[in-house]
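To close the chapter, one final illustration. This time we ask the reader to focus less on the individual chains and more on the assembly as a whole: which components sit near each other, and how the overall shape emerges from the parts.
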Amino acid sequence: MAAFVNATLCRWLSISIWTPDAVLVALIYLGLTSGSRVAVIAGFLVGIYQDLYVPNMLGQHALAKTCIGYAAGVLSDKISVEHLPIQTATVFSLAVFHELFMAVSAGGSPGAMISRFFIRGLPSAVYTALFALILVGLFGAWLLPKEWGQARFRGTRRAR
Amino acid sequence: MARDSAHSSILFSLFAVISVVLIIIPGSVKHEIASHIGPVFFFPASRAVALVDNVSSVLLDNRILRSRLADQSVDRAKLFELETQNRRLRTMIGLKEALPYDMIPGLVIMRPGYFGSEYLVIDVGEDAGLVRGQGVLSIDGLVGTVVEVEPHQALIRTLLSTDARVSVLITRTGAGGILTSEATGWFAINDIPIEVSVEVGDTVVTSGLGGVFPSGIPVGSITGIGVDERLLVHRLRVSPTVRFSRVREVFVISKSMPGLQGILNPEEGNH
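The assembled structure is written out below.
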């Protein structure tokens, strides 16, 4: 579903070379809500799916998404992620890691990697975090666990 | 919870190793793997994405086609009008060639509203050689006469005018009479002797008397027969052949017929 949204809606939302990554947002929220076990499997499968578009990159997206899924699951255990600003910050930081990984794994000179990250990767990470913020802000009541909404008001940490 | 964490760590390690292996294997092997598992992964998503692309393409095509359809409907209406006009003009040309008179074609440009179709304005006048008193025909039959002429247009008084009089005869029997106009849009002939045989459906044409109209021009057909027992004449109702409200093109007979004097309108001296 997220891949479908990525290939259609996000293409229409792109600004120049910067596109929000709906797959990444979905994966992070899967890790935050369902834990790292589910998110690792999902991340690996989604990563392989994206790698098949460019066989030369086989394994790169898979590794990146696997790490993202695992990190999101671990973060959900370590910090309180019910609040929207924390969710947005989590999405942003994981998106930056993802873009950094992809910029490095694409190869080339250090200068090329750096320019690739700062020109394309970092703005895309910002756009992805903004996309997540708007999406969850508008549809969070339907997409996220109900107890998160309650915790947001009570200020308590979600119990696993 | 610790067990779950351990499971997660094991899974993460496993998938990370697989990913690293996939990264380091040669490119040819990567392509081989991708060619085998790609179709399995891609088929559902590709179909969904293609469906969305198709829908937007269909919507765009639909918008373009609707616009073209609207344009073509307008063109079709124009074409139909042109075809109808073409048919009328061909008939007029045939009529012009068939009749041994000089005729000046004209288009109806106005119907003075107050008078309905009793008067018509055409787009030719003194510049084309029109003069007062000339007869006017259409492809369907007799229309009327020219009553006023200006440099580039002329006023025609049609047979619908209650002042109109035309010398006519019934083609089947040859009986002649004077055709007048009723206020209701019908014509009347009230002077055919009672002993003359008349039937509903008989055609009425101009007699040629009067020097304005040639003989044989259709005027109407008999649709009603009455009798005036005091004067011993038929009272005939005649339906006109010309639909005066729809006349578009007319011919003005540029030369009057020579010969016999007919029944004249006191005001005009003719018709």
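Chain A has one domain: 20-154. The longest helix of chain A spans residues 110-143. With these observations in hand, you are ready for the problems at the end of the chapter.
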